[in-house]
UniProtKB/TrEMBL annotation:
<dbReference type="InterPro" id="IPR007197">
    <property type="entry name" value="rSAM"/>
</dbReference>
<protein>
    <submittedName>
        <fullName>DNA repair photolyase</fullName>
    </submittedName>
</protein>
<feature type="region of interest" description="Disordered">
    <location>
        <begin position="62"/>
        <end position="103"/>
    </location>
</feature>
<dbReference type="InterPro" id="IPR040086">
    <property type="entry name" value="MJ0683-like"/>
</dbReference>
<feature type="region of interest" description="Disordered">
    <location>
        <begin position="1"/>
        <end position="32"/>
    </location>
</feature>
<feature type="domain" description="Radical SAM core">
    <location>
        <begin position="125"/>
        <end position="362"/>
    </location>
</feature>
<dbReference type="InterPro" id="IPR006638">
    <property type="entry name" value="Elp3/MiaA/NifB-like_rSAM"/>
</dbReference>
<keyword id="KW-0408">Iron</keyword>
<feature type="region of interest" description="Disordered">
    <location>
        <begin position="416"/>
        <end position="435"/>
    </location>
</feature>
<keyword id="KW-0479">Metal-binding</keyword>
<keyword id="KW-0411">Iron-sulfur</keyword>
<dbReference type="InterPro" id="IPR058240">
    <property type="entry name" value="rSAM_sf"/>
</dbReference>
<dbReference type="Pfam" id="PF04055">
    <property type="entry name" value="Radical_SAM"/>
</dbReference>
Length: 435
């Protein structure tokens, strides 16, 4: 069996023409920029990742190059069987003679999946919830820092551009949820929707999986928590307001910075910071408890905005706030380094040095006790800044929103839809009536 050089947390070497680390390196070693950045990093308009970095389970590496004989075709130019192209972007070829041509825009391709299960359970001591649900795999928002990017490796896809352009819709998610709630063994508890990938990303506008999920939770009176960067959540205020009146719904809006230029490169297809503040105001006015999630805090990029984000969010109606220091698990680390080189080459080394100061000298430490806030003097200073701003603004910063939700009114559904056939198509006998 062929052996491959070890990289931190199993990261495969992105560019095989670079020397591998010595055999004495352990699994906790830190990737240096030279290990994967050996060319000019060029960002694509409307996308967060700079490259289609291979996943950690891939045994081979492929790179496109122009041999000068024909126009260069880019990976992912067209869908395969069972895939749907969304949006108006058109793939095109580049002129081999035009050295300044803009890279072609990637089309967003959506694959339908008939999932086998839908509710995920966790026992993480640093999370305020134990049940979560994600109707989509991948996220078109394209946030470069997204901790869910490595999950695309399990699909044989890249955590880079594939994560934000090759999406999967779990078309039977509402039916699976209904069947789960109907089980006698199900113990009612808050279900957090969209914690891995945003449940209100652009494809939700047409597919409405999140809307159908919320309708079921509303009818069963099962508490729900939502976190998003999208204004599309305003579409479901009718359901959320009714649930909030019975202490069955809370929402959080993520705002990393108030600078629209930084936000456009950091979260290229999410709503602008100003629009997200309007979402907070709209939700608050509808009586829905809303908090602001300042996640992640990136040193020297979004970190200077910490207090300003809190002030703006509170003025808009946020009643709680929380923050998370940048997390760089698995392939997110090299992807983020590439993004830094493309957008902030003047401060890239400084940013990574500060991150490693808060992670014990590494890009990331997954220890439950420290992964959200970091350690060391800089992490302590950040915590002090957050605590002082919270007290000055008079908001709750102890993450107690989940404790206010009430699951005592839960009504178990009596009728559930039959399992879908192998093709994942609905039948005429599908029954979605609950009571």
């Amino acid at each position: 069996m062929a052996s491959f050089p070890k990289f931190p947390q199993g990261i495969a070497r992105p560019f095989p023409d670079q020397p591998a680390p010595s055999s004495s390196d352990d699994d906790d070693a830190t990737i240096t920029p030279a290990a994967f950045i050996h060319r000019q990093q060029v960002a694509q308009k409307g996308r967060g990742a700079v490259t289609n970095l291979r996943g950690r389970y891939e045994s081979v590496n492929r790179e496109e190059f122009d041999d000068g004989w024909q126009p260069l075709q880019f990976a992912g130019d067209g869908p395969t069987t069972g895939e749907e192209v969304v949006g108006t972007e058109q793939a095109h070829t580049t002129d081999p003679g035009d050295q300044d041509a803009e890279p072609p825009r990637l089309k967003t391709i959506v694959t339908e999946e008939t999932a086998k299960s839908i509710i995920s359970r966790n026992a993480s001591p640093d999370l305020p919830f134990s049940l979560s649900l994600n109707p989509y795999r991948g996220c078109e928002h394209g946030c470069i820092y997204c901790f869910a990017r490595p999950s695309h490796s399990y699909l044989g896809l890249s955590p880079g551009l594939d994560f934000e352009s090759r999406l999967v819709a779990k078309t039977n998610a509402p039916e699976l949820l209904l069947r789960e709630l109907a089980r006698p063994s199900y113990q009612p508890d808050t279900i957090t929707v969209g914690i891995n990938t945003d449940a209100y990303q652009p494809i939700e506008r047409e597919r409405q999986l999140t809307r159908r999920i919320l309708q079921i939770l509303h009818d069963c009176e099962n508490p729900v928590a939502l976190i998003t960067k999208s204004s599309l959540i305003e579409r479901d205020i009718d359901l959320l307001a009714a649930m909030a009146a019975k202490r069955q719904a809370i929402a959080a809006v993520t705002i990393t910075t108030l600078d629209p230029v930084i936000a456009r490169t950091l979260e290229p297809r999410a709503a602008s910071p100003a629009r997200r503040l309007r979402v907070i105001r709209t939700l608050a006015e509808a009586g829905i408890p809303v908090s602001v999630s300042i996640a992640p805090v990136i040193p020297f990029v979004t970190e200077p905005d910490l207090e300003r984000v809190m002030e703006a969010a509170v003025e808009a109606g946020a009643g709680q706030a929380g923050y998370i220091v940048l997390r760089l698990p698995w392939e997110v680390s090299p992807l983020f380094r590439q993004w830094l080189q493309a957008h902030f080459p003047d401060r890239a080394a400084r940013v990574m040095n500060r991150i490693q100061d808060m992670r014990g000298g590494k890009d990331y430490d997954a220890d439950f006790a420290t992964r959200m806030r970091g350690t060391g003097v800089w992490a302590e200073l950040l915590q002090q800044r957050f605590d002082k701003a919270s007290r000055r603004l008079g908001i709750d910063h102890r993450n107690r929103a989940f404790a206010t939700l009430d699951a005592s009114r839960f009504r178990r559904p009596l009728l559930v839809p039959p399992a879908r056939g192998g093709q994942g198509k609905r039948t005429k006998n599908d029954q979605l009536d609950l009571f």
